[in-house]
Every structure is written in structure tokens, then in C-alpha cells.
Amino acid sequence: MVSHTRGGEPRQRRSPAARGKSGADAPPPAGGEQLTQYYRDMLLIRRFEERAARAYTEALIGGYCHLNLGEEAAVVGLMAALRPTDYLFTNYREHGYAIQRGIDPKRVMAELYGRADGVSKGWGGSMHMFDLTHRLLGGYGIVGGQLPLATGAALAIDYRDGDDVVMCTMGDGTAAIGAFHESLNIAALWNLPVVFVVINNHLGMGTTIEKSAAEPELYKRGAAYRMAAARVDGADPAEVRQAAAVAVESARGGQPYLLEVMTERLRGHSVVDPAKYRSAQENERLKAADPLHTFAAKLAANGILDELDVEGIEKEVASVVAEAAAFAANSPSPSVETLFDYTYASPVPNDSRRLPGQPLFEPAPLPGGASA
Amino acid sequence: MVSHTRGGEPRQRRSPAARGKSGADAPPPAGGEQLTQYYRDMLLIRRFEERAARAYTEALIGGYCHLNLGEEAAVVGLMAALRPTDYLFTNYREHGYAIQRGIDPKRVMAELYGRADGVSKGWGGSMHMFDLTHRLLGGYGIVGGQLPLATGAALAIDYRDGDDVVMCTMGDGTAAIGAFHESLNIAALWNLPVVFVVINNHLGMGTTIEKSAAEPELYKRGAAYRMAAARVDGADPAEVRQAAAVAVESARGGQPYLLEVMTERLRGHSVVDPAKYRSAQENERLKAADPLHTFAAKLAANGILDELDVEGIEKEVASVVAEAAAFAANSPSPSVETLFDYTYASPVPNDSRRLPGQPLFEPAPLPGGASA
Amino acid sequence: MTIMTYRQALHDTLRAEMLRDDDVLLMGEEIGVFEGSYKITAGLLAEFGPKRVRDTPIAEEAFTGAAVGAAMLGLRPVVEIMTINFSLLALDQIVNHAAKIYGMFGGQSKVPLVIRTPGGGGQQLGATHSQNIELYYAFVPGMKVVAPSTPADAKALLLAAIRDDDPVLFLENLALYNTKGEVPEENVPAQIGQAAITRPGKDLTLIGYSRMAHVATEVAEQLASTEGIDIEVIDLRSLRPLDRDTIIASVRKTHAAVVLEDDWLTYGIGAEIAASISDGAFDDLDAPVRRVAMAEVPMPYAKPLETAALPSRYDVITAIRQTLAAVGHRTGKNSPGASAPGKSSAGSSSTGVPAGVKA
Amino acid sequence: MTIMTYRQALHDTLRAEMLRDDDVLLMGEEIGVFEGSYKITAGLLAEFGPKRVRDTPIAEEAFTGAAVGAAMLGLRPVVEIMTINFSLLALDQIVNHAAKIYGMFGGQSKVPLVIRTPGGGGQQLGATHSQNIELYYAFVPGMKVVAPSTPADAKALLLAAIRDDDPVLFLENLALYNTKGEVPEENVPAQIGQAAITRPGKDLTLIGYSRMAHVATEVAEQLASTEGIDIEVIDLRSLRPLDRDTIIASVRKTHAAVVLEDDWLTYGIGAEIAASISDGAFDDLDAPVRRVAMAEVPMPYAKPLETAALPSRYDVITAIRQTLAAVGHRTGKNSPGASAPGKSSAGSSSTGVPAGVKA
Ligand SMILES: Cc1ncc(C[n+]2csc(CCOP(=O)(O)OP(=O)(O)O)c2C)c(N)n1
Ligand SMILES: Cc1ncc(C[n+]2csc(CCOP(=O)(O)OP(=O)(O)O)c2C)c(N)n1
Ligand SMILES: [Mg+2]
Ligand SMILES: [Mg+2]
After folding, report:
1. Please, which residues have CB within 8 angstroms of residue B115's CB and are 6 or more apart in sequence?
2. How far apart are CA D41 and CA D33, in angstroms?
């Protein structure tokens, strides 16, 4: 189901020529093949994340590691609504998005391992994946940090009369931060081609949405900016894709959009969080609501997917994930020689290239030339 | 006229005992005497500000100086709705508020002059007036800076089950800043006794509200936090007072409130702004809409105020302002000896008390005792 | 005395102060139900309830500013900002409001506020989560900044911070939470604004704070036992105010100094320490003050790069050796313990080596 | 060469770059209809239209962050933050995003962004509007920070900043906008990262940036004519990267240095300059490096107090005199121009005066 609120008229309506067909309706419902592909994509994310969790316990991955477990349908549906030339800004919980944007899982896993073949050459890690060719403009670790950036990217597209769209995803807890307000206001004020997507798993880390938002129906906040908004169930990739397509085409037409996707986070906030704050019964509910299973059941019921297909897909996916892990394990660490290579894009004199043990100035040589 | 939007139910309704009579309706309409008093108060602000503007041109006042000219009815009506024990946080455009809170105009003018008898001992100036006994908890120069502070003051009242209310005023341009969003959300989430008041003069400095807010009907933003909200015409002090009283009693009952007061800024953003960006016709409109004259006319029409009264009040006010200026002119500047007295409230060793010309360490005495 | 972790000392002190004074309340993200990102506040929500242990929305600016406002009305809020990196979002409320309100209004309103926040690095958290920016607070008049390196100081300085009437930035460190040490039973607050000589010595003054004060003591003990080098260790404890007297008095005795910091070298905390020593102990220094700090890069995620960018014990020992060698080279004495009466110009400025060559 | 104000040089350069490159756009509060709080952008909205001269809402964090995002897609935004005090609200977008994006993603995305903002003081704007916090940017790897003191440098450095592919904090100063100087017709960008010797001299090195570089030159000229003291003046121009080589080479020649800054002394910009000199020119310094800076208080509004808190020409002259006296006291020479070959320990550490006594 989808609930809506209407946005105001865009102040400066773009010519369809410049912005592409504007305000288009939802695409035709997905057919069996496409639905099967969605399932395959969801399963890939599921198995990839499970493998990442294991690699973390094996100390092959470090730092913070946040997984998309339970949000597979949302990730798949959202990414399916984007053109390859559209841009994505997201947060630290972005492995699945990277894969769905078309980045080879090998390079995603290699980044988690901190290797030179990773999408960010090992400099970013789990929270900071970036790939220009697939127009993933970054996972960001500062809550809300991606919103102003996405707004600016949309401004650049608009500035050049391009017809690409920027999608910016965030969590429900992120809707409380100032950048949310400032960014949505500017995007609406300037009719920028951007879709803000709240992945509402009703939890920050352990804080529920009721404890972080005075208006917990977050899509309703669009009204504060005369921004069109909707809420959609995130358990079904086809539904998500339909709602996202409407949002994306609205943005393409010069009307930014706020889309709220209702999801569940199957595990802790990050791989190290045991989520003790959840009751056994809550965990039961989560198991039952697992979108991977409910979606599989739906496809089975509609005769689109049978036991055998599922097994086949499992095998496929398993080998993709295994290859990714193997590739990551064999990829070299970035060389320490590169430590000073990414401070500045324009070389500049007097840039510091000193290691912690090195002096600021060469010590004067000792009398008799004995070295210190 | 007043337009309304409803807030949600307070999550945790306070006991009337703890919070005082909650959600009271507007007070009875003001009688003739009270209306005359409002007029007197408005005129005092008008003449005080005109005197301040003159003193600025005479270089008796420095820094930035923002006046309440055109907003007298809003200031008087809002302050009339507060109990003496309620708190006010406001911005840099606060001379009139200080006077209406009951602070002697002499001390307000002395602060503008930067003298020791000023409300902030000359340390704050035009933008930073503070007086604990009259519960003016500060004018603040950073746009939006007062909102989190006011929210926290309301938290302290709530923490101690007090039944005072905090009023926090701001301008329309301030509604675009992140602190607005963060503060209103927290205030509504925690049912804090605070009223946020937007003085909408439809201008930032030269930027119109239409260019700074995607939803220019700012009171509607209350809905994003399930916060009760209303908009009122700021040209009539009685109307403002009625609307403010509703807001204040709602807050006292544990339901924070967003009140938008529509006003006009008769001159530039600050005394040095010639407001070239305004058309002659716009300036004509402003003259016609001057609340001081419209309100006087209204009182005259209702036989509450005649020529003579007006003259009498003019005389009264003129002498109050003249005394204030004289007092300020004769008040001493704060002594340079006090420069290091207000860095810390709790004395602490090794606090720096060095003037710019003094060395960090006493220079070693010269051989033969010649001094450097 | 009991042995406990730095984390435990913080937890117990928060609890003790909340029991002592009803005006003390805790605010921050995930400090209640989640029991804190680093579990400092574990159990306190259960004991004191949601009124005094407040889980806030993710809104650093407003909840920190709300704590300032509450402090203006006499409460004594202790705010937790999950890591110091996120404090940038609250900086306006801290620097432009908390630190200004007492002075800007002529001393009419105190702001008894504590902001607890950990710095760190070495956890592979990447460029935005590995910064040490205590400088941003230590630079500001009106702020007080303390940085305990031991469980005992964590307790004593937290007591002092909570009872102080000014805004105090209380710097913790991810790498210190699990370190153990003796902590006295009694609740005796430390004096903010004073450094401590944690190891007396005569050959060289080694200065650090927070994690690096910890490293300093370890290295000093090691060099004493392995090479008979007698190092005096100073733990700054308070970054603002800064206790220059203790530092200068030490260097006037040892004639040499090495400063350790976990932040970036250029403009970092160590710059002020080195500048102050070079001024106050000018005639007593026998070698340039050496600084050991992070490499000046956005911190990479990959472990080998992160390790290379962070100061190590080996780096500290190198700096000490080179500094003692420089002392010997100027005083003529070669025993590491040598402490000449003062600078000799022998072969110094006459050695016409071009300065300013980067290593 | 034409004579024009610092303001005019900024205005003309912005205009010239917008004419040269369609990707250059301006964003900020009140820069269009209001023509800028300090009128730097006067007339540009009329000439280039609202698409390239964007009045933003009062939302420092989002419009600065939006400029970062636009720069990631190849535009070259020039943001105006009305005064540097308000930049605290955008600090997360600048420090955690603009300065990190190139490194954090392994060099995949450039951020060609310029942030123009004036510092200042002395305008009676009070505690929150009189700060000089360029340190917050100069401290951060990934940022470049320039601080022109003359109209010519305002032009040359702004050209360089706009054409640079990294985020550049371009520091202006309220007190410099109306100062005049010669500006070349040609659009020749300066080299970021290099200081300039604006007056050669042999007796003492006087170092400043922004307004204080201006003051330095004036004082040097005055002392040259009135007392025959020959001062070498260095204008840092770039705070990050910092050109230590130029500074050290000068001090190795003059043997004495005084550092001028408009920010607070403790942990201020001058701390790094003093620390670097004391290290790199250790054997050549004949007196401690002296720093002249603001008093460490929240800036009061009242004129007499504000004046007392700000460094004056008189303070600078006092510092120079006392430093030259200290040189004489160590070198035995008393002529201000004395430049001994290096440190002599004569009567230095033997003078047992307790150090660390605050003035
Ligand atoms: C500014 C900032 N504050 C706090 C944090 C720590 N933090 C990381 S994730 C998180 C919770 C975010 O919740 P939500 O927005 O719902 O996203 P989710 O993790 O549920 O996808 C917090 C508080 C941060 N990274 N940045
Ligand atoms: C954070 C911040 N940004 C910018 C400014 C500069 N400034 C001072 S007042 C003002 C306009 C405010 O307009 P509004 O909120 O409508 O209040 P008004 O002056 O109209 O009463 C601006 C941009 C500031 N003081 N603080
Ligand atoms: Mg969430
Ligand atoms: Mg306004």
C-alpha cells in the first residue's frame, strides 16, 4: 500500500525537452522474469551480507560494518527505479546499493577487506563506497551528511539542464537532524531533481522512531516544504519500485520528492551489536516478516518460482559470493607509498608528507658526521 | 484574523497541579485602559528606537544595531501574554522586548552605548541584552542559536515540574536553519513548555520569505512535529496578545506551540541598511500600514483615544526616552580592569590574563640589570 | 584503592554524581536503551529513569544546545557526544553559545555543562571517524578542556568537571576505555588547569595527554629499564587552561623535550606546547623540541595505511633517541643522561646546513 | 597596474572568472538582491542572473554542503559565508565532507570549491561576531587556506583558489575591504602554499597574515624611518600548506622573530609558526620567538574593552623592542641591527631567573 501527500506546483516548471518526460506515472507492473530477477538480487544481497558478517568475525573486515539484512527488497526496488545515469548518495549501510548499482561484488567485498582492488581502493571501507562509472556518489558515515551533497549534485544537473536525477537515501533516525530540514527546503525551493528516500526500519541504533520523531510518519514532513511525498511498504521490491518510479519521474520533472520506505532491520545496528534491547517476541515477529521469505512465498503462490528455481538461484548466488570473498582475500593491501597521494587533487608546494616518526626538519649532522 | 493547525495529543499529559491550568482559552478582550497602555508601550518602543538610530549616527552606539520599528504591536502583544516569571529567549532585534519585559529603558539605552550600567554591563551591546530578574534570557546574534537554548530552558522547567513557560522568538528567515527543525522536534517529542514565535516580516536582510522558504506559510511547519500552530496579524497588539495567550497556555499544559506573527519592517535590516532593494511603492505601502498609526486610528474610532491623549502620551514617552539617553550618556564605560573577569565563572589556575602587548613569559633580565 | 577500567571509573562517577545531586542529568544519543555506544552509561537508565537519562534524537546541535539552556537555569547536564567527530555539528552551540554566554552577558549566567566525548583513531573507522579535534575546544576562551589518561584521573576530572560552573569538554579516548588502573574510593575532584608529573626524570621531558600520556609512561619505563635513560613524563590532563609552569620547570631541569599527540602536527595541540617551551625555557633547551603526531592525511581505512599514519611507540623512541643525540651533539656529552648547564653554540649555527628541508 | 580597494579586487576577480568559465557560480546569503553584506558581489546578480548568483536561505550547512556536491559534479562554486563566525554551522560539511571526499574515496572525486569568508574584530560586534577561527581550517589535511593582505594578493589568490581542484578556504578581513593598493591588469594566479617576503631586512623577522601582515609592513616602515631598525616582513599568504622554508631561511638570517596574529594566542596560528621557527632555526635564534595576539576573552562590546583586547601597533612595536633587547642581551651587541652568528650561551642559562612566570 502507498499513502500520498501532494506537493505544491513547481515554481519554475522545466520544459519536457530539458527535463525529459515529466511527472510520469508508475511503470507497468513487473512480469515474472523481472520478479525472479528481483528475488535473485535480494538473495545476493542477503548472502553477501551474511558472508561479510562472517568475514568480520574472522577479522578480515575492520571498523564499523552495517548490513542491509532485512532491507533487500527496499534496496532492489529503489535501484530498479533509477536510470544508469542517475546518481545515488547513500549512507554507511550501503553494500547492497553498491551491488545493485552494478558494481562487481568482488570490488565491494575487496573494499570491505581494505584492499587495493576495492571500489574505494581500500581507503573507504564498509561505510565509504564510491564509484563514478556506476554513479554511486558515496556512502557517508556522518548521519545526514549526504543530504546537502545530494542537493548540490541535483543543483549541478539542473545548472546544466541535464535530465538525470539524484536519489539520496537515509535512515529514519536521520530525519531528526538539521541537514534534513535545510536540504529539503532548498531542494523544494529551487525545484531540484532529487528524491529523498527514508529507509524507515523504525530504529536508530536502539532508539525507536517514536522516541526520535514527534511526527513518526516521516513522509508527512514533505508538507513542510510543499514537497510531494509517499510512504510504501518495503517488503515487496515490485511495490517499492513502483513508488520509487513515481518519485524519480516527479524529480525529473522538477518536483523533488520524499519517499518513505517501511523496512525491518533483521540484526543489530552493526555486526557487533547483539541488539539485546529487542524482545524474543519481537525477534519472532522479525523472522516471520523476513521479506526474502515472504517475497519467495508470494512468487511461489503465483507459480512464478518453484523449489528448483530457488535452489538454482541459491547455487548461483553462493558462487558469486564465494568468488567475491576469494577475490578480496587475494587482492593486495594498498601500498604505504600511497599514503600521501590523496590529500590534494591539485599538487601544492609545502604539502606535508611526513610520517609520525620523522622530524619536521632534518637534524643538523653531528660533528664528525656520526648520525643521530 | 488567526489561522490554525491542530497539534497531536501530548504523549505525556501533565497533571494540572504540576503544570497549572492547561490549554486555557484566550483571555477576555482587552478594555479601553489596557488598549491605551498598549498604545503607550508601542509608542515608547517607536521613539526609543528612533532615538537609538540617531545615537548610532552620532557614533554613540557601535556594532550592528537592529530596530523593532514596525514590529511594536507584535512585541507589545507577545510580551503582554507572558507571566513575569515566564522566560524569553530572543534574537538580536530585541530592544523593544527588553523594555516590555520591564527592564528600565535607561539600562537598555546604556547597553546600546556600551556602558557599565547597561543590562549586560556593556559587554553585550545591541544584540546581546540579558536580565535574569526580568527573565529575559538573552538576545542572540547567531541566527537560530536561541532555539536550542530555549528548548533546554523549557526542559529545565519541566525537569523541576515548574509551571513557567519559555517563549522563543525568531525571524522568518530563521525558519530555514537546521536548529529550527531539531529544536521543534525535540520540544514536541518531550512535550516541553515552550512557544516558538516567528516574527514574519517577510524579509531576511533583503531576501524575501518566498525565496527562503518552500512553504512560506511558516506556521504550517508545526505539522511536521504534530505541534499546534497558528498565524496572526501582527498589526494589532490585542489580537497578538489573544493568539499568544492561547499559545502560552497550550505550552503550560505541555503542548509546545508555533505562533507566526505577520509584521512589517519599516526600515532597513539594521540602521546602516538603506534598503535600496525596496521600491518606492513598497515604501508607500509600508507607511500606510504602519501599525502605530493604524492602531491609534482604531482607538480613536472607538472613542478610546483622542488627540489630547495622544499628545499627552507623546510627551510622557518623549521624556522617558530623553532620560534614557541622558542616563546612558552619563554612565561610565566598563573599566579595562574587568577585561578578564568574565571568562570563567569558576576561577581556575593558569587562566590567561595577558594583554596583547605582554609577553607569555617575563623576559630574562639583562646583564647589569638594564631592563628591556 | 580498587583496580578498575577507565570505562568503569567513568560509569561509577556518573552514577555517584547523579546520586549526590538531583540536578545532574545525562543527555545523548543511545545512552539509555542502547546503554551507550561504548557502554559508559550501562544500567543508568534502569536505575534513574528516562527523566534523568535522556535518549535524544540524532540532533547534536539541538540536544547540546538544549543542555546549555538547561544549564542556564541551573541544571548540571552531562552530555555524551558519541565521538568527537560528530561534535562538529554542535560546535556553534558550544563555541558561540556555551563558551560565550557567561562573558557576553556580563557574567549574569553560568553554564555548568559537561560534554563527554571520545577521540581516537586506530579502529579503522576511516577519514571522518578517526579525527582528534580537541584543538577546536582548547582554543576557545570560556571553555575548559580536560583529557584524563588514567582511570583515577577519569574519576577525579569528571568529578571536577561536573561540579565546575563553566562548560567543560571532557575528552575520552576509544583506546583507553578498557585500560585498567587504581582508583581511590573517595570522591575527590581534581584541580582543572593543572598538569601532573607522572614520572620524575632528568634526561628529557616527555609530554602527552589522553592516550599519548599513557604511551609516554610506557615508553619511559621501557627506556629506563633497557637503556638507563631517565625520562620525566608530564601528563597535561588539562588542555585549557594549559599549565605552562609545570612544563617549563621540568624542561629547565632536563634541557630537552619531546611532545606526543594523536592529532595532526601542523597547528596541533603540540604546536602550543613546543612554542611555549621554546619561549619559556629558551636558554635551557639543548635541542629543538620534537613533536610526534599523526601523518597529515585523511585517515585511510586499510590497516597498513592507518598504522603508518598513526604515531607508534617506535616513533616515540626514535624521537627521544634523536633528541638526546641532538643534545649530545650540542653539549659535547654523549651519555643519554647528559644535562649540560645550557646551550653551547659549538658547531651549531656555523654548520651551514640549509634548514627547512622536509624529511 | 591600477590602484583599487581590496573589495574591488575581489569583485572584479569574481566577475572575470565568471566570464571566463561558465562552471563558476556564486552561492551565499544576501549576495544577490542585497548585493552582499559587504558588497563584494554588488552588480553580479544583475549581470549574471539568479542561476549563477544564488541567494540562499539562512542554512550555512546545507548551502555549503550543496556547493560541495555541485563541485563533485564538476561545477566550481564560490560560496560566501557572511562572516567566519557563521562557518561553524557549516563546519561538518567542510571538514567532514569537502576536505575528506577526495581521500576517503581513494582519489575518485575532486572538490573544486572556494569558500570566501571574512574574519575581523574591532567593529564592536561582540563575542560571537568577532572571532578569528581560520585555525579550524588550517588544521585540516585536505583543506587549503589562503589569507591575502593586499588587493593584488586578493586577486592573485582568488584566481588560484577558483582554478584549484581542492576545497579552499579564502580568508578575507572586514578591516581590509577598504584598503587600497596596486593591482595588475593580467589575470595571473598566485601559487598557493607560498609565503612572500614583502620587505627584506636583517635585524628581525616580522611575520603576519591577513590584516596583521598589513600592520607588519606599516610598523616595519615606521621603525625603519624613525629608528633605523631593519625588519624583514613575511606575509604568510597561505596558512595551509604552510611555507616553513621561507620563514626559516629568513630567521636564520635575522636571528630573531615576532609573530603577529588576530586570533587568540594559546593554540592559535602563531603557535605553529613559533614552534616551527624554534625547531628549524634552533641554532640561529638569539631570542625567544615573541607572539602578539588577541587577549584570551570572549570579545566585549564596549569600545575601551575591545580596544584593550585587540593587538595594536603599539603592542607590535613593544614586542619588537623587547625582542631586540633580548637579542642584545644574549649577543652582547646593543645596536638594534646586531645579528650575531648564532647563539652564545653567555649569561644565558646561568641567569637563574625562574621561568614560567606569567606577565
Ligand atoms: C552526526 C552523527 N551522529 C551520530 C552518529 C552515530 N550513528 C551512526 S548510525 C546512527 C543511527 C542512524 O539511524 P538511522 O538514521 O535510522 O539509520 P539506520 O542505521 O537505521 O539505517 C548513529 C546515531 C553519526 N554517525 N553521525
Ligand atoms: C548563522 C547566521 N547566519 C547569518 C547571519 C547574518 N544575519 C543576521 S540577521 C540575518 C537575517 C535574519 O532574518 P530573519 O530571521 O527574518 O530576522 P529579521 O532580521 O527579519 O528579524 C542574517 C542572514 C547570522 N547572524 N547568523
Ligand atoms: Mg533506522
Ligand atoms: Mg525577517
Report:
1. B122, B328, B331, B332, B333, B334, D302
2. 10
Cβ B163 vs Cβ A163: under 8 Å = no
Interface B-D: count of C-beta contacts within 8 A: 188
The whole-angstrom distance between residue A114's C-alpha and the CA centroid of its chain comes to 19
Q: How far apart are CA B11 and CA B16, in angstroms?
A: 15
Residue numbers of A between 334 and 353 with CB closer than 8 Å to C: 334, 336, 338-340, 342-343, 352-353
For residue B324 and ligand 2, the question of a CB distance below 6 A is answered with: no
| Distance (Å, whole) CA C1 – CA C4 | 9
Measure D296 CA to nearest chain A CA, in Å.
29
Query: What are the start-end ranges of the H helices in chain D?
Result: 6-20, 44-48, 60-72, 91, 101-104, 135-138, 151-163, 211-227, 244-254, 269-280, 303-309, 313-331
**pLDDT per position as a tens digit, C81-125:** 999 999 999 999 999 999 999 999 999 999 999 999 999 989 999
For ligand 1, mutation pick of A143, A169, A210, A270 (most atoms within 8 Å of CB): A143
Read off the pLDDT of residues A211-245 as tens digits, 9 standing for 90 and up: 999 999 999 999 999 999 999 999 999 999 999 99
Q: Is A172 in the pocket of ligand 1 (CB under 6 A)?
A: yes
The strand pair at D180-183 and D204-208 is best described as unpaired
Q: Is the dihedral of CA A195, A199, A205, A209 positive or negative?
A: positive
ipTM value of the model? 0.95
DSSP SS3 for A73? helix
Q: How far is B189 from C54, CA to CA, in rounded Å?
A: 12
What is the SS3 assignment for A201?
coil
Cell of A318: 553462493
Burial code (b: 16+ CB inside 10 Å, e: under 16) for A75-111 equals bbbbbbbbeeebbbbbbbbbbbbbbbbebbbbbbbbb
CA distance C352 to C350: 6
Is D129 considered catalytic here? yes
Whether the upstream peptide bond of residue D118 has omega within 30° of 0, thus cis, is: no
Does a cis peptide bond (omega within 30 degrees of 0) precede residue D300? no
Give the distance from CA A80 to its chain's centroid: 13
Nearest CA in chain D to C126: D104
Which residues have beta carbons under 5 A from ligand 4 (an ion)? B 171-172, 201, 203
**Length of chain C, please?**
359
Distance D30 CA to ligand 2 centre (A): 10
- Mean pLDDT throughout A21-36? 74
Check: CB of residue C195 under 8 Å from CB of residue C257: no
